[in-house]
Structure formats: C-alpha cells, structure tokens
Specification:
Helix content: 10-25%
Number of helices: 3
Strand content: 25-35%
Radius of gyration: 14 Å
Low-confidence stretches: 3-20
Number of domains: 1
Number of strands: 6
C-alpha cells in the first residue's frame, strides 16, 4: 500500500490551459514518478510502476474543477484508482489539460502503454483497457498528450 504523503501546492505555472469551445468534460493529468514504486491500486491489486511520465485521462460531468482540485490536493479518502497512485512517494502532477473531447476519445489519442489493465477504466464502454498510460522516462522532451479540443 502506498503511504500517504504531504502534497505540496500545485504550482499554477505548470497548469496547461487549452482554448476550447463549450465546457470541458474531460481532463488529463500529466504525472511524474521520481522513482519506481510498488503500489496497491484499490481492488485491482499491487503493481510496480517504473519511474517516468504518465498520463491519466478522466472526466466529470458535474463539479469538473472540484474533481481536478481534489486530485491535485491529494485526497485523504481514496475513491478513484488515480488517488492511490497520486499518494505514492515521489508522484507529482506536472500539468493538467482540460478538454471537451469525450474521455475515451482523448485517451485513445494519447500515446503510451498501459501498466495496469483496467486502471481508471472501471466504467469504460469503449474497451480502452486503461486510462493511465506510461509515457517513458521523464525529462526526455514534452509528452504529447491528447491535446484540447
């Protein structure tokens, strides 16, 4: 189980705002793990996450900004799979991308590979496999997330 850690305030300078028409309904968290971590993800089980950059794609029909704020603040109660990973030592959100594209469309447009089958995709009807993708080593250039729109 990943131990709870103090979460520093998210620096606004790292927030990515994309010009979109209409209200955003999905988002991506660009996450960096400073070192490899073994973490229990709710009922999915225990997994090894290599150090590097990840992109998590999520959505919220209501309280959209509150959902993002909850993720950035490090929720005490772990409800979503991403809550477990964000509580891991060395995990930090380095960017947030908001989009009006459907969650699964945005996820499909994002390169990377699934480390944990089913992660963030409990209610996925598009057979995405996972809504968390591993992008490789951090600091090797800007990750190409499924940008905006």
């Amino acid at each position: 189980m990943c131990r709870r850690r103090a979460v520093p305030a998210f620096p606004a300078s790292h927030e990515v705002r994309v010009a979109i028409r209409g209200p955003a309904t999905s988002y991506q968290l660009v996450i960096e793990l400073a070192s490899p971590v073994r973490c229990t993800i709710g009922r999915l089980g225990t997994f090894d996450f290599p150090a590097g950059r990840y992109v998590y794609t999520g959505s919220a029909r209501r309280a959209f900004e509150a959902r993002i704020t909850r993720h950035l603040a490090g929720a005490v109660n772990r409800h979503w799979h991403i809550d477990y990973l964000l509580a891991a030592p060395g995990a930090r959100v380095v960017a947030v991308v908001r989009s009006r594209r459907a969650e699964c469309v945005l996820n499909a447009a994002t390169a990377g590979r699934a480390i944990v089958p089913g992660f963030g995709a409990s209610d996925c009807r598009a057979n995405c496999g996972a809504h968390l993708k591993f992008r490789g080593a951090a600091g090797t250039g800007r990750a190409r997330e499924g940008r905006g729109g």
